[in-house]
Amino acid sequence: MQEVCDCCNAVNDHAHSIELEGGWVLNHWSSNNENYLGRLVLQTKHHRRNWNDLSLHEATTLGINIQRINGCLRQYWSMRFPDDSIEQIYAVYFNEYPYKKGKSTEEIHKYLHVHVHLLTRTRNMRTAKGFDKKNLGWKLIDYIKCFPDDYQILDSGHYNKVKEMMEYLRRSLTNKK
Length: 177
Fold this sequence. Notes:
By secondary structure, the chain is α+β, with helices and mostly antiparallel strands. The protein is built from five helices and five strands, in the order H-E-E-E-H-E-H-E-H-H. The protein has a single domain, classed as 2-Layer Sandwich (HIT family, subunit A), CATH 3.30.428. The chain has a five-stranded antiparallel sheet. Helix 2 packs across helix 5.
C-alpha cells in the first residue's frame, strides 16, 4: 500500500481535481500567497520522484494532456474574458519539495509527485501597472498583486471563480457533465 502525502490528498480530492489520461491529475494551485485564476498544476496520481520514474504511459500522455489543457483553458478564457486573451501558458517543472522539519531528504523524496506548473499570462497581466515586462515566465508570480482584480484569488471568497473555471475544464477535458 502506497503511503499518502499532501499531493496524494490533492489528487484524490475528486471534487477539486480532474483525473486525466495516463495517470495525470489537474488541480488549480491553492497557495494563498501565490494564487491567481489560471494557475494550474498537472501532477502524477502516484509517487514519482523524477522523469525517469514515469511509466511509459505517463510519459507519453504528459504532452497530450498539456496540449489539451492549453486549448480548453484558452477557450474558457476567451468566453469569460473576451477582451483579454491568453498570450502564453508557461509549463514549469523543477520538482523540489519544501523542507519539512524533522524529515530527512530521503523521507521527503519518497513522497514526490512529478508535477508541472501551468502559468497563464494574459495581455492585461503583462500590461498591468507595476509589472516589469523584462521578467516574464516564472517571475509572473512576483507580480500577482499587479494583476486585474478579476484574476486575483485572495481568499476563499474568490473560490467561485476557480470552481467555475475548473468545472468548465472538467467538462471539456473528460466529456463529463
